[in-house]
Design goal:
Chain lengths: ~325, ~325
């Protein structure tokens, strides 16, 4: 990993306490993110995929500082995001924004759109009054909405339009990194491509870096330079997009890829069907997280958790059974 | 917006007509003959029949209703049998005392209830949350008449801080003179509503705090206080306003008990005396008046919604 990484995540861990018993005395730990490390370069898009509950959204929130990690660090150009305080913290947070999955829930229903987009400008002291209004018009223009939207409320817009408003809001503070937390999974397929195209155009124009979280591999394939696969709080495989899709190494990645339907009824493909459900992330057993469902599991997999190792250049896998 | 208010005002008319019919019928169902009561137990049958004719009580029910309604609309709410005075001015004077008590109690309930709810929600499962919600549960369960007596004993008799009954000191008048007399009854009356408002604010806030747009607000870089007051509270207000509106009816009803305990010269004492004396015109007038006030308060609540939530359409 080069030292000059734009964003570096080091051994990031987030455990949530789960209380039970009469007075909430006994505590178990839900290991949402468990020792994940990777780095990102400026201007790239890293896709992060995994099933529901694998910790990918928690990961996004940890990175932009909405959640405090249990341990580990997030470094933005060498500066620890979670250690910063006061003005410095505000500065760092300004550079990282998030776009949420649900365009219906992520906009305050009591605020007109113009105010939703302008508020970050006021908070960070970037613009006031007429200048702020001008900036809002410009942002709305960026995302393909007219300035007529400013006085309207979120409920007056469609899902795709709302997601554009969310994007404009995120762009308002001129961030460097945007965490896209499943930004298109709540949208119709035709609208999905519009929003994805918009995101790529904005990236080219503004030099943005994206952490793109999704549960569909095909969406991620379209937009990402590199793709990471998560399972129960662990990063299983991380590789450049084409490499991952043409040469998946981890059994879990192979199973995921085999589940993508091919739009041609004549093509037959061997599907790898995983048996059982995703085990609970509360107090998981030692060993590989994928052990209980892995078709290739060995006895070492039950004992030791595999480290993320680099097999070929840039292709990292966490599996005892792969390579050597 | 103006059209919306006008429309809602017009919609009040059928509701109020319904209220008058109900009030009229209820009074007819109540046992006892007003003519008999007015003349006392020694009246002869012919005297009673003559008075019934004079009062129009021998006419068919629907005719009686329309005669009564016509008078009500022209401001003639009848005369109190017992007090021998016109009902409307009597009700109006007493209503001012009840309104003072109710509004004061509502203010106490809203301010402290919402404050407790916000603290509970923002510090969920903390010791403060548990304590406040326990108190809310207790407050919600306490019967008003018992609480009133206990307040009188503690703050009136043992500590001697506040007067236990009446509305003015002897010979005193004006609002400032009333304040010490107002505190105990208003607090007593407010406790149940306060508890209800606190619980509603808490649950509504908790729901709102989990919404994505609150995360959005945090991601924008807003501090905790701004997130709570600017983004969360305004969204959490709708169910709270509903409860406040409904509590107003509860307060008006509770005021009857509280007024009797604290000898507060309001509508409640007047009504109870009226019922005991079978003073039909008076009781009828009070019920009609209170029902109309309640309907109006609910209208105001609906209009407040429209201000609070742009999603509620004005048209």
């Amino acid at each position: 990993m080069p030292d000059s990484a734009f964003l570096e995540v080091r051994n990031l861990t987030k455990y949530f306490p789960v209380r039970h018993g009469v007075f909430g005395r006994s505590i178990s730990w839900l290991k949402a993110v468990d020792g994940v490390s990777f780095s990102m370069n400026r201007g790239e898009t890293l896709g992060l995929v995994g099933e529901s509950g694998c910790g990918k959204s928690t990961m996004g929130r940890l990175i932009i500082g909405l959640l405090a990690p249990t341990s580990g660090e997030v470094l933005l150009e060498g500066e620890n995001v979670h250690a910063a305080t006061g003005e410095r913290k505000k500065q760092l947070h300004r550079r990282m924004q998030i776009i949420f999955q649900d365009p219906y829930g992520s906009l305050n229903p009591r605020m007109p759109v113009g105010e939703i987009i302008a508020e970050p400008l006021y908070i960070h002291g970037l613009a006031r009054g007429e200048q702020a209004q001008k900036r809002v018009r410009q942002l709305l223009d960026y995302v393909g909405l007219g300035s007529y939207c400013m006085g309207r409320y979120p409920h007056e817009f469609s899902g795709g339009q709302r997601q554009r408003i969310g994007i404009a809001r995120a762009l308002a503070v001129e961030p460097d990194l945007i965490v896209c937390d499943e930004p298109v999974s709540a949208l119709d397929v035709s609208i999905q491509s519009q929003v994805l195209n918009l995101l790529s155009e904005l990236q080219d124009e503004l030099g943005l870096t994206y952490l793109f979280i999704a549960h569909g591999l095909n969406v991620v394939k379209y937009i990402s330079d590199r793709v990471g696969v998560m399972y129960l709080g662990k990063l299983m495989e991380l590789a450049p997009g084409d490499e991952l899709y043409s040469n998946p190494r981890h059994p879990y990645t192979r199973a995921l890829l085999s589940a993508i339907p091919i739009p041609d009824p004549k093509v037959k493909r061997e599907r790898i069907i995983l048996s059982g459900d995703v085990p609970s992330p509360i107090d998981p057993p030692p060993g590989c997280r994928f052990y209980s469902r892995c078709p290739e599991a060995d006895e070492i997999c039950a004992r030791e958790s595999p480290e993320l190792r680099e097999l070929d250049s840039g292709h990292l896998v966490a599996c005892h059974r792969v390579g050597g | 917006m103006q059209r919306y208010i006008l429309k809602r005002l017009l919609a009040l008319i059928p509701v109020l007509i319904g209220v008058t019919i109900l009030v009229f019928l209820i009074m007819q169902l109540a046992p006892g003959d007003p003519a008999q009561i007015m003349l006392g137990s020694k009246a002869t049958q012919s005297n009673i029949t003559a008075l019934r004719h004079q009062l129009g009580l021998d006419k068919p029910l629907y005719q009686q209703y329309f005669i009564w309604l016509g008078k009500v609309l022209t401001g003639d709410w009848g005369r109190s049998i017992q007090l021998r005075r016109a009902v409307l001015p009597l009700v109006w004077t007493r209503f001012q005392a009840t309104a003072l008590l109710t509004v004061f109690a509502a203010l106490i309930a809203i301010i402290f209830g919402m404050f407790a709810g916000i603290v509970s929600a923002t510090k969920q499962y903390s010791i403060w949350d548990r304590l406040l919600m326990f108190l809310a549960l207790v407050g919600f369960c306490l019967p008003v008449f018992w609480l009133g007596l206990i307040m009188q004993i503690i703050f009136g008799l043992k500590l001697g801080w506040l007067p236990v009954s009446g509305m003015h000191s002897p010979g005193g008048e004006g609002f400032l003179d009333t304040v010490p007399y107002l505190i105990l009854p208003a607090v007593t009356l407010s406790v149940g509503s306060m508890a209800e408002i606190a619980r509603m604010t808490r649950s509504s806030m908790l729901e709102v705090i989990r919404q994505d747009y609150i995360k959005t607000a945090r991601a924008k870089g807003l501090g905790q206080r701004a997130v709570i007051f600017r983004h969360a509270l305004k969204n959490a207000m709708i169910p709270v306003v509903t409860v406040v509106g409904m509590q107003f009816g509860y307060l008006l009803a509770g005021a009857v008990l509280v007024e009797i305990i604290f000898s507060w010269p309001g509508l409640g004492t007047l009504m109870v005396n009226g019922i005991l004396a079978r003073d039909f015109p008076l009781v009828q007038g009070i019920i009609l008046f209170v029902a109309s006030v309640y309907v109006l308060v609910n209208l105001i609540v609906d209009i407040v919604y429209a201000f609070l939530d742009p999603r509620i359409s004005y048209s």
